[in-house]
Write a structure and sequence with these properties.
Layout (H helix, E strand, L loop, with lengths): L2 E4 L5 E2 H8 L4 E5 L4 E2 L1 E5 L13 E4 L4 H9 L7 E4 L4 H10 L2 E5 L5 H20 L1 H4 L3 H13 L1 E6 L4 E4 L8 H7 L6 H9 L2 H7 L4 E3 L10 E8 L2 E9 L9 H21 L4 H8 L9 H7 L8 E8 L8 H11 L4 E5 L2 E7 L4 H19 L3 E9 L5 H14 L6 E3 L4 H14 L7 H13 L3 H10 L4 H8 L3 H15 L6 H18 L1
Parallel strand pairs: 5-6, 6-7, 7-8, 17-18
Antiparallel strand pairs: 1-5, 2-4, 3-8, 9-10, 9-13, 11-12, 12-13, 14-16, 14-17, 15-16
Helix pairs in contact: 2-3, 6-10, 10-13, 15-16, 18-19, 18-20, 19-20
């Protein structure tokens, strides 16, 4: 019987599916723009009537003659077919039927390929329902690790079955090719891994193991780290070195990826597609109150105990593209860290941090690393201590206040360090909404400047900026001090305000700041 997996109205094109699963396994022979959203494993006995109704058929044990005859017949046809017997008669029949055809490597295992296809389609469904959920996929994680560690990545479960992988290139060795096809590696190499103690080290610790190249067996150097949720061993992440050496941060990236992979695998086993929604609720993004104990239990986090929240804003709006890298590095710093993207900002939760100094130093290092190695300028605001998970949403509001109020050159700060800028900015926001609190005397002064080509507003503002130091302000304005004194007297005459009066000075500074903001 055909085995269907319906995944809703979302879908991927055949071309996207082939790229996701790698040219090692699949080759598109036509119809790359055809969209598929459901898959069925189809045997010869299933080629009757209207079939399974799925968009994509995986033909298992169906001969070339049977496939060609079926494609040429009447009745329902899927949008695409994957087959290991893509001979010319099959290709011609697929073209005539308007069915996309994908050739499958003869050594690929169907029981390995089917869950891979299902995973790609499921990721498409999650993306259609909620873009935040797309970032939790193991294929996305493999691509991020490959980019940041430098190499070709495979993520395997505890039984050494490949769950996801990054794209291969010409430097892929036979071991990688066989693993992607769902086949076991060369017995001699597996024996060598056991002799080197690689498997024992993976099952007993979190270290990144450096596996040397084996010239006689034709295998290249690899780095591997275990995926664990102590005491349970969940799998491993392997990175094969290609034509270029690994990056300097490869081991750090792998450690972070292992923590993310553990949460993702457990999520798929226990509560599919819920973690991202829960994290967003924790940060207060989905409305309603937060049941902190329940969320803590679902996310395997301590309900009590202090935490830190860090908000990130990109110089160019939109931080979703850097989310996976941020998750990698954050998980390397704190295994239980959580990352989400809400709007055009990313937010990080660090439960049980050690010291404020350590969090600040790590955040500064991360911001510098993004700029130096990824050409991405980030600003960060830190809220700590957060008393417990029930206060995470409040802490997110706090970091938003800081990011809204601080200038672009302030790369990493806290509310305590930026309180003046934050409070002044919010006071000005409030004044901007209250026209009855706008002083008409400033409007009169600005109108005088406009009508007489003078510069009294700017001169007064500069004088106040220099705390009444006339000589310093005159130097800044490149005028004689007596010229500035004349301008200040004229401004006092027009407005009726007295610069020597503390109340007038305070009001004037606020109104000038409001006027400057209005002018942009």
């Amino acid at each position: 019987m055909a085995k269907d997996l319906e995944v809703g109205v979302a879908g991927v094109t055949v071309g996207e599916l082939v790229r996701a699963l790698d040219s090692t396994v699949l080759e598109a022979l036509g119809g790359v723009e055809v969209t598929v959203a459901s898959v069925a494993l189809v045997e010869a006995a299933d080629l009757v009537g209207d079939g399974s109704g799925a968009d994509l058929h995986l033909h298992v044990g169906v001969s070339a003659e049977q496939t060609a005859r079926w494609l040429a017949g009447a009745g329902h046809r899927p949008r695409a077919v994957m087959t290991k017997v893509a001979a010319e008669p099959v290709r011609a029949a697929a073209r005539d039927a308007g069915v996309a055809l994908v050739a499958v490597h003869p050594q690929a295992r169907w029981d390995h390929l089917l869950p891979m296809v299902q995973g790609v389609l499921d990721r498409s469904r999650r993306r259609a329902c909620d873009p935040e959920l797309a970032g939790t996929d193991l294929f996305d994680l493999a691509q991020a690790v490959a980019r940041d560690a430098g190499g070709m990545v495979s993520i395997e479960d505890a039984q050494s079955r490949v769950l996801a992988y990054s794209a291969s290139d010409d430097s892929a060795d036979e071991l990688r090719t066989l693993s992607i096809l769902g086949r076991q590696g060369p017995p001699d190499y597996l024996r060598a891994l056991r002799d080197w103690g690689v498997f024992d080290r993976l099952r007993s610790g979190d270290e990144v193991v450096d596996v040397p190249a084996h010239d006689r067996l034709g295998t290249r150097r690899r780095l591997v780290v275990s995926i664990r949720q102590p005491p349970t061993y969940l799998g491993s992440i392997w990175v094969q070195q290609g034509d270029k050496p690994f990056t300097a941060e490869a081991e750090e990236v792998l450690r972070g990826a292992a923590a993310i992979a553990a949460r993702t695998i457990l999520r798929d086993l226990e509560a599919p597609s819920t973690e991202a929604v829960l994290i967003q609720r924790l940060f207060g993004a989905r409305g309603g109150g937060v049941d902190a104990p329940s969320l803590a239990g679902a996310l395997n986090l301590p309900h009590t105990g202090r935490a830190a929240v860090v908000g990130f804003a990109a110089e160019t709006p939109g931080v979703a593209p850097v989310r996976n890298t941020l998750r990698l590095l954050a998980s390397a710093f704190r295994r239980d860290s959580l990352v989400t993207v809400i709007g055009d900002r990313a937010y990080l939760l660090l439960p049980g941090y050690t010291t404020a100094e350590a969090v600040t130093a790590w955040t500064r290092h991360l911001v510098d690393e993004f700029e130096s190695t990824r050409a991405t300028r980030l600003r960060a605001a830190i809220a700590l201590p957060v008393p417990d998970l029930a206060h995470v949403a409040t802490a997110r509001t706090e970091v938003d206040r800081v990011l809204d109020a601080t200038p672009a050159h302030t790369r990493v700060t806290t509310l305590a360090e930026s309180r003046t800028a934050v409070l002044l900015g919010e006071i000005l926001d409030l004044l901007a909404t209250r026209p009855d609190l706008h002083d008409p005397r400033l409007t009169t002064l600005a109108a005088y400047d406009r009508d007489h080509a003078t510069d009294l507003v700017h001169s007064t503002h500069t004088h106040l900026t220099h705390h009444g130091d006339t000589r310093a302000a005159a130097t800044d304005l490149t005028v004689h001090p007596n010229t500035l004194r004349y301008r200040l007297r004229r401004a006092e005459q027009i407005t009726g305000l007295t610069l020597a009066d503390p109340g007038d000075r305070l009001l004037l500074e606020l109104q000038l700041a409001l006027l400057g903001r209005a002018r942009g």
